[in-house]
Amino acid sequence: MKILEGIRVLDCSIAMAGPFAAQRMGDMGADVIKVEPTSGEWQRHASAGGATGNKINVSFLSLNRNKRSLAVDLKAPEGKAILIDMVREADVFLQNYRPGVAERLGVDYETLSAINPRLIYISMSGYGEDGPYKDLPGQDLLLQGMSGAMMSTGSAGAPPSAAGQYLVDAIAAYSAFEGALAALFHRERTGEGQLVQVNMLDAIATIQMQELSVFSVGGKPQARSAEPHAHSYIRAPYGVFATSDGYITVAMASLAKLEQLFEDEFFAGLSDETDGWIRRDEIFARVKGHLLKKSSAEWLAEMRARDIWAGPVYGYEDLINDPQIKHNGTFIEYDHPTEGHLKVPGFPIRFSRTPCAVERGAPLVGEHSREVMKEAGMSDDAIDALIESGVVRQHA
């Protein structure tokens, strides 16, 4: 038995943040039903990196395993009736519609909680359910720029730099996942369902708990250095440095140890906690000059021998082949009926008694429409009529 087995999730979300949150619940055993339009969810038609796949593009594939697909037109009265019937027995309802859309569709919290008071209703948005920005597009890069995080890295005068991941989407997904689990735990204690609201702006702001507190409580300005320092609130040396054959990272090395490593009297007598701040550019530049003299492997060996915090800078091929990644089983492999043999990131949470597993890959559009509606008590004749009318799509 898996840890969320017996929990039914209705996933009415699109793009990354909502589907990723629902997938985490599916990985833990929840029965996740992806309720999508008969034309298929938006992400099916927007391939990240141009990776289109065979019948399912890789972007959709990566966010929708362990789900069943019910393809239904919710704007049709018959389609909405199907969803309402399913809500009666559901545990979690997840949506990331733009503000106002849930109300227009008649699937807002007030409506659905009246039908099922035990329902956990997860509502995700870009900036919040109301307020001056409620109608703006909640896209990852836009939120990264607004978050302030881009001004904590790099060098003064250089353009702000975005993260190399869909960072805000991922953080919002985990916030929704965490909120769903907490609300389910509350329901176990009290029997009460509730509304859980998550927005991307708050998610990316609150994850910067330390940085924003240093600014708002400590009164320290967010000032980038002339050298491309990796964080405005960390002392030197801290960043990515070129070597003779690549790059390494160095984090908050003891200046006394750097004196020994480089045999350079420049570092003699420097204080980590004083000079590491006020002479940040000088220290960065000095370290940068020394590290160009040897290879990455040589420097990492010498630094680790002296307990200096340093590490490699990987691309994805390096990451996948790293011995610790292999030891951890970070990537999993399974066969998908249309996309073939897949090797993809697995499960970040490990349970000793209730391990996660891939029970099914990402579904085709409407692949499970018939079985989901049959489980909801509908007759074969009624299902056939809905499919024939186009209100519901069943994959051939």
Automatic annotation (TrEMBL):
Keywords: Transferase. Coiled coil: none annotated. It comes from Tsuneonella suprasediminis. GO terms for molecular function: CoA-transferase activity. The keyword Transferase applies. The keyword Phosphoprotein does not apply. This is CoA transferase. InterPro entries: CoA-transferase_III_domain, CoA-Trfase_fam_III, CoA-Trfase_III_dom3_sf, CoA-Trfase_III_dom_1_sf. It holds the Pfam family CoA_transf_3.
